[in-house]
Write a structure and sequence with these properties.
Blueprint (H helix, E strand, L loop, with lengths): L1 E7 L2 E6 L9 E10 L2 H9 L1 E2 L2 E2 L9 E9 L11 E4 L2 E2 L5 H4 L10 E2 L16 E5 L3 E3 L5 H5 L1 H14 L6 E5 L3 H12 L4 E6 L2 H5 L8 E4 L17 E6 L4 H8 L2 E9 L10 H7 L2 E4 L6 H10 L9 E6 L3 H8 L7 E5 L15
Parallel strand pairs: 12-13, 12-15, 13-14, 15-16, 16-17, 18-19
Antiparallel strand pairs: 1-2, 3-6, 3-10, 3-19, 4-5, 6-7, 7-11, 8-9
Helix pairs in contact: 4-5, 4-9
Length: 356
């Protein structure tokens, strides 16, 4: 079978790999579709991000769905050929953090497509893959592309969970990339009274309407677009910072109300923090890293029709055009979420009408 392998920055190769048979409790899946994430782009464009650097060739990819191809011993409840969403998160279940139900902080985490540990954890951008049955969630009623959106949506859901009760709150989101846009969707489902999102790229903000935000502000065209919200002691109760930019964080804090909550999602490396403003306003900073239980919820919300994430899928490329897919995904003036098709059957599944 074929796999996409990043050897170093801008060196993406389509290579032949062997795949073993599934062991006890495992499933062999034919990967259907994979979404290119920001971390995949960091590995492709720069060989890593922050202090995390690639030290060996690595298969990227942690947003994907697949079709059940073979069941390992002891696996029940799955039918051959059915579509499943695959969580990339494989906590050990034995460490102190797993015992505290903090699975996203597992000391022995095996997260697909990650250069954080060494040897690196190979990702899901390959035609066939062995996964644990516990990673698979049935995705009936969804397209393969929708099922692959469960992972980034789960990130947004986890961020909202970290913020606490946001019912009736006013929310600011900095960064209208996939994570920011999906955090907006999650905030709306959690009952936010007002959602405002900012970005520097007009194309990204075009997708904000699918998250049903109240206002999408282009800070490139109008650097003072948040001035109205900075009046008095500020406006927003909750900030979801999705850029990893010190400038975005600093500009947003001025629009925060005293004792507001800042949830930091953006991972762009270490950055200076305006601590005096945070102290004077008694703001709280909470990190949000990956997810766990939220993956199942992401699928359920899509299946129930309570959210529609298909409009955020801007581009889909066949595997042979993977290099082009990564280039397009890197261009925010074109793309929101770019996906790669790994299985022909992924293109044959019926597509439900868009509810927007």
């Amino acid at each position: 079978m074929r796999a996409l392998v990043i050897h170093e920055a801008k060196d993406l190769r389509l290579e032949q790999r062997e795949i073993p048979a599934p062991a006890v409790g495992q499933i062999k899946v034919k990967v259907a579709i994979g979404g290119i994430c920001g971390s995949d782009l960091h590995y492709y464009n720069h060989g890593g991000f922050g202090a995390i650097r690639m030290k060996q060739p690595m298969i990227p990819g942690h947003e994907f769905s697949g079709y059940v191809d073979k069941l390992g011993e002891g696996v029940e409840g799955f039918a051959l050929g059915e579509l499943v969403a695959i969580s990339p998160s494989r906590p050990c279940g034995q460490c102190e953090y797993c015992h505290q139900a903090l699975h996203n902080h597992c000391s022995n985490m095996q997260f697909y497509g990650s250069a954080m540990p060494f040897p690196h954890i190979q990702g899901g951008f390959q035609e066939e893959l062995i996964v644990n049955a516990t990673q698979c969630i049935k995705a009936e009623g969804l397209t393969a592309g929708e099922a692959a959106m469960a992972e980034p949506f789960a990130v947004g859901l986890h961020a909202v969970q970290r913020a606490g009760n946001i019912f009736g709150k006013r929310v600011l989101i900095t960064g209208c990339g996939p994570i920011g846009a999906l955090a907006a969707v999650a905030a709306r489902r959690a009952g936010a009274a007002e959602v405002v999102i900012t970005d520097l790229v007009s194309n990204a903000l075009k997708f904000a309407k699918f998250a049903h935000v109240d206002h999408a502000l282009n800070l490139h065209d109008n650097p003072d677009a948040l001035a109205f919200y900075r009046q008095g002691k500020g406006t927003f109760d909750v900030l979801f910072e999705c850029t990893g930019s010190a400038q975005a964080l600093g500009g947003a804090i001025a629009a925060m109300r005293p004792r507001g909550i800042i949830v930091q999602l953006g991972l762009g490396g270490d950055m200076p923090v305006p601590m005096m403003q945070i102290t004077a306003k008694e703001l709280e900073i909470r990190g949000a890293f990956r997810f766990h239980d939220e993956f199942n919820l992401a699928i359920k919300l899509m299946q129930s029709g309570l959210v529609n994430l298909k409009p955020f899928i801007s581009h889909t490329f066949e595997l042979d055009r993977a290099h082009e897919a990564f280039e397009v995904a890197s261009d925010r003036s074109q793309a929101m979420k770019t996906q790669i098709t790994f299985s022909e059957s992924a293109q044959l599944r019926p597509i439900k009408p868009q509810l927007i």
